[in-house]
Every structure is written in C-alpha cells, then in structure tokens.
Amino acid sequence: MMITPIHRFRDIERRPEYLQPDKCVPPPSQSSLGTMWFIRDGCGIACAVVTWMLVFYADFVVLLVMLVPSRDYIYSVINGILFNMLAFLALASHFRAMLSDPVSILFWKLASGAVPKGNATKEFIESLQLKPGQVVYKCPKCCSIKPDRAHHCSVCKRCIRKMDHHCPWVNNCVGENNQKYFVLFTMYIALISMHALIMVGFHFLYCFEEDWTKCSSFSPPTTVILLILLCFEALLFLIFTSVMFGTQVHSICTDETGIEQLKKEERRWAKKTKWMNMKAVFGHPFSIAWLSPFATPDQGKADPYQYVV
C-alpha cells in the first residue's frame, strides 16, 4: 500500500520520542487564561477597521443620500430600519467572529481545566492517562498537544481544530468555535449589499424622473459619485461574500474544512448527515437562534485528545 506524505508525518508524530515533553515551556498560569481572545496582527486589524468603515459608509449613503431626502415616508422608514438591522447583525457577527477563540487548544476544557499553549509537558501527558492503543500528537511549532483535525496557524500562533482558513477581514482563524459567526457575517454582508444595490437602482430611476436637485441633499455631481462608489462596493462585496457563504455552507455540510480539502487529507472522523453537521455548527436544536450572532451554539463535549489507532 502506498504511504502518502501525510501518513508518514502522522507516523512520525506517533513516536514517543517525537513528543519531547522535556523541551516544552510550561504553560502559563491559570490567572492568564481568562484574557480576551484577540489577534495582534497589523494587516488583520487594518482589514477589520476597513470592513467597519465600509459598512458605515454604506449606511451613510443609504440614509443621508437616498432615504432622508425621499418624499415617501413609509418607504424611507421601512428600508432604513431593515438596512440598519442587517448592518447591525453583520457587524455583531464580525465582532463575535473576530473576538471568539476559534477553538485553539488554548481554551479547550478537560477535567483539569483550560488547556493552554505549550501543554505538551510530561506532567500533562501523564495526566491524560492514555490507554493502550491511544496516542497524542504534538505540534512542533507551538509545543502543544495537537487534537485530531487541527492545523497550526502561523498568524494566530496556535493550533486550530477544524481550521478552515485564516481570514484577515475578521482578523482571526475560522475554526470550530467561530464558524457560525463567520457564516452569519458573510450572509448579512451579502444581504445588505443586495439591499443597497436595489435601493440605488430605485433612486437613480427616481432622480431621472424628477429634478436631481430635489432627490438628494447633496449636489448632483456629489450624489452621483457617492451612489457609484456605493454601487461598486455593494457589487464587489455581494459577489465575494456570496461565494464565501456558499463555500462555508458546503464545507459544513460535507464536514470537511477548506484546508482538509486543499491537502486532500484522509477522512478519519465519523461521517454524519448534512443536517447533523449544520446543527453541530449552529447549535441544537434548529431555532431562530441560528440567525443570531448573540446565541452561542452548543457543540457537545467530545474529548479531542484521545484516539484509537
């Protein structure tokens, strides 16, 4: 049987001498484990700030250029409430995706409490009380015991279980614990982009039929420039987030992350139905909470460290 490079790498990880627990730095004290999760990456922070600025720009154009000058009060109120509600949910989803631990092994809960980075020490390995036939993997980069389906992120400097990719727009990895928020973020951004495009189309038609000086609080050239910029932004983000939303939903349904698909890794986990995979990400049971970035999904209590080979 042909042995792939992935198999050879895993075989090396299974050797006792590969763990080298004596070379690992002891984990941080328990008092430092309750800090907020935030990635200090300059590019990621800049992208996150740009994301919020673009949403605020869209809200500015929608409200002050199109809705406030409109003579149809009901049209303005309904669209203003709808657009701002979707924008709020998009930014809330972005906030949760950015500040949620994507289930790196830093905060995984076991009987002994939170498991920190650098936990591949002799004492912790002995505390797992591994049975014959059970093995643990160690990441040589962050010196942590590596759960199955985990990959090391060079930006987050952590091993992330079910890591799909590192997204600079949310300044975080998309992993097991924050994938729901990332999916909601892409969905709500796509919705407000489509909503903005529809309103821009109606506004252009209204301005062509009426006097341009009466259809906006700004001068006609300024109005046209603002609307064209919003159109370009909305179209670009509608395409981008729609594609991301589709790939994320496909990844969830097939229970295979983007990295696992890219590396064509051997499937070593149990196959579940698409509906069960959706509930594993968005929570049990199905409810309106699936659409809320404020509801934390219940993902079960599986032991990530012990496997039967």
UniProtKB/TrEMBL annotation:
Residue ranges occupied by any Palmitoyltransferase DHHC domain in the UniProt entry: 138-264
InterPro entries: Palmitoyltrfase_DHHC, PFA4/ZDH16/20/ERF2-like
E.C. code: 2.3.1.225
Record GO cellular component, one term: membrane
GO MF entry, a single one: protein-cysteine S-palmitoyltransferase activity
Keywords on record: Acyltransferase, Membrane, Transferase, Transmembrane, Transmembrane helix
Membrane topology per record: Multi-pass membrane protein
Database matches in Pfam families: DHHC
Record's catalysed reaction(s): L-cysteinyl-[protein] + hexadecanoyl-CoA = S-hexadecanoyl-L-cysteinyl-[protein] + CoA
Subcellular location, record wording: Membrane
Primary location recorded for the protein, binned into one broad class: membrane
Transmembrane segments: 43-67, 73-92, 181-204, 224-245
Main enzyme class: transferase
Family: Belongs to the DHHC palmitoyltransferase family.
Domain notes: The DHHC domain is required for palmitoyltransferase activity.
Name used for this protein in its record: Palmitoyltransferase
